[in-house]
Design brief:
Helix content: 25-40%
CATH superfamily of the largest domain: Type I PLP-dependent aspartate aminotransferase-like (Major domain)
CATH topology of the largest domain: Aspartate Aminotransferase, domain 2
Distance between the termini: 55 Å
Shape: globular
Number of helices: 13
Oligomer: single chain
Bound molecules: pyridoxal-5'-phosphate
CATH class of the largest domain: Alpha Beta
Structural class: alpha/beta
Length: 366
C-alpha cells in the first residue's frame, strides 16, 4: 500500500528554522535572535489584553473592524483598505493563497525573508530568486526575474536579515516595471525604525491607483506584541476583498485585537522603544567596528555582521557565543552562511556579547 506523503512542493521544503531558544549548559539565555522588542509592550496594550480575557469565550468580530478602524485613524486612511492578520506572516501566506496557483512564479530576493518561499511552495508555485547587490535589493535583478508566469513579487524593505533599505524612488521604479497583473508585496515589518528621508513603507504606491501593491506591517517588533501574533496590511479594496475571502473566519484573537488597538494609539511608548534602539545600536555597532568587524548598514533593530573568515569563522564565533548563553541568528538559511544577525536587545546582553568578541579577538579567532 502506498504511504501517505505530502505534496511534492512541500516534501523537501525546509521549514522555518528559528534561532536557538535553549542552549546546553547555559543558566541564562540572552535572546538576541528574534528581533523582539527590548522594551516590551505598552502597559496600556497589556491592560487591554487582560481586560478582554473575561470575554474570551466569545468569538471576535469577523474581519477585525475595530482594529482596522484604529489603524486607519492613526494614519488618517480609509479603514476599508486595512486588513489584519495573525502576524504579518499570515497575511504574506494568504496573499499566495489568493493570488498564485500551482505552476505560477513567485519572485523574491536572494536574502529575502524565509517566509516567502514557504508561502510559495504551500500553493505549489515556483520559487524564483533574484540576486541582491552587496546585501541591497536590486530592482533590475528583480525586474529581470519577472516573466509572464509571475504572479507575486515579495520585497522586504528594509530587509531581514540584511537590515538594508531601498528608497521610495527605487521601489517606484520596481512597481513601474511590473505589469498590472503582478502583485507587489512590500513587507515593511521594520518601517517604524527607519528615519531615512528617502524611505517610505509603501503608502504612496498603494494609493497610486494601480491596485497591484500591498504594504504589510507587523506589531511584533516596535510594538512588542510578537507573542500575541498581530500584523496588518494597507492595500486597495479589491486586494482586501481577496484577503477577506481566503482568511480563516476569525483570524486574529481577541487579546491581540485589544492589545493592538491600545499599542497603535500609544505614541509615547513607541517613541520610548525607538529611542532605546537609536541609543544602543550606534554604541553596539561602534564596538563591533572597533573590533574590525564588517557590518551591513542596517536601519532596523538588529545588526548584521559579515565574517571575513567566511562560514567557518561565523560558526566558530557562534559556538563561543552559545557557550556564554548568547543566542544570535546565524544566517545560513538566508544564503548568508558567513553572517550572523544580532538583535538590539538588553544592554547587559550586548555588553556580554562585546566582551566575548573582544576575547575572541585576543585569541585571533576574529
Ligand atoms: C521582514 C519580516 N517580515 C515578516 C515578519 C513576520 O512577522 P510577524 O508574523 O511576527 O508579524 C518578520 C518577522 O521577523 C520579518 O522580519
Amino acid at each position: 500500500m502506498p504511504l501517505l506523503s505530502p505534496k511534492n512542493s512541500v516534501e523537501n521544503m525546509p521549514g522555518y528554522a528559528p534561532g536557538a531558544m535553549k542552549l546546553p549548559n547555559a543558566t541564562k539565555i540572552h535572546r538576541l535572535s528574534f528581533n523582539e522588542s527590548r522594551i516590551g509592550p505598552s502597559p496600556k496594550a497589556l491592560a487591554a489584553a487582560m481586560d478582554v480575557m473575561n470575554n474570551c469565550y466569545r468569538y471576535p468580530l469577523p474581519g477585525n473592524p475595530e482594529i482596522n478602524a484604529a489603524i486607519a485613524n492613526r494614519y488618517s486612511v480609509d479603514p476599508n483598505k486595512i486588513f489584519c492578520g495573525s502576524g504579518s506572516e499570515e497575511i504574506l501566506r494568504l496573499l499566495a493563497c489568493g493570488y498564485a496557483d500551482a505552476g505560477d512564479d513567485i519572485v523574491y530576493t536572494e536574502h529575502g525573508m524565509v517566509i516567502y518561499p514557504i508561502a510559495a511552495r504551500c500553493v505549489g508555485a515556483n520559487t524564483v530568486v533574484a540576486s541582491e547587490k552587496n546585501l541591497f535589493v536590486d530592482v533590475d535583478s528583480l525586474l529581470n526575474s519577472v516573466t509572464d508566469k509571475t504572479r507575486i513579487v515579495y520585497v522586504a524593505n528594509p530587509g531581514n536579515p540584511t537590515g538594508t533599505y531601498i528608497s521610495n524612488s527605487e521601489m517606484t521604479r520596481l512597481r513601474d516595471g511590473l505589469s498590472a497583473d503582478v502583485l507587489l508585496v512590500i513587507d515593511s515589518a521594520y518601517a517604524e525604525f527607519v528615519d531615512a528621508g528617502d524611505y517610505s513603507p509603501g503608502w504612496e504606491l498603494v494609493d497610486s491607483g494601480k491596485d497591484n501593491v500591498i504594504m504589510t506591517r507587523t506589531m511584533s517588533k516596535m510594538y512588542g506584541l510578537a507573542g500575541l501574533r498581530i500584523g496588518w496590511a494597507y492595500a486597495s479594496e479589491p486586494i482586501i476583498e481577496v484577503l477577506n475571502k481566503v482568511r480563516p473566519g476569525f483570524n486574529v484573537n481577541s487579546a491581540a485585537i485589544a492589545a493592538g488597538i491600545a499599542a497603535i494609539e500609544d505614541l509615547e511608548h513607541e517613541e520610548k522603544t525607538k529611542a532605546y534602539n537609536d541609543k544602543l545600536k550606534p554604541w553596539f555597532e561602534a564596538q563591533l567596528i572597533d573590533l574590525g568587524l564588517e557590518l551591513a548598514p542596517s536601519v532596523c533593530n538588529f545588526s548584521l555582521i559579515r565574517f571575513s573568515g567566511g562560514a567557518d569563522q561565523c560558526q566558530r564565533v557562534n559556538d563561543r557565543l552559545r557557550e556564554n548563553g548568547l543566542s544570535v541568528k546565524p544566517c545560513g538559511g538566508s544564503n548568508l552562511p558567513d553572517c550572523m544577525r544580532i538583535t538590539i536587545g538588553p544592554e547587559e546582553s550586548l555588553e556580554l556579547l562585546v566582551k566575548v568578541l573582544q576575547s575572541l579577538k585576543k585569541q585571533e579567532i576574529i
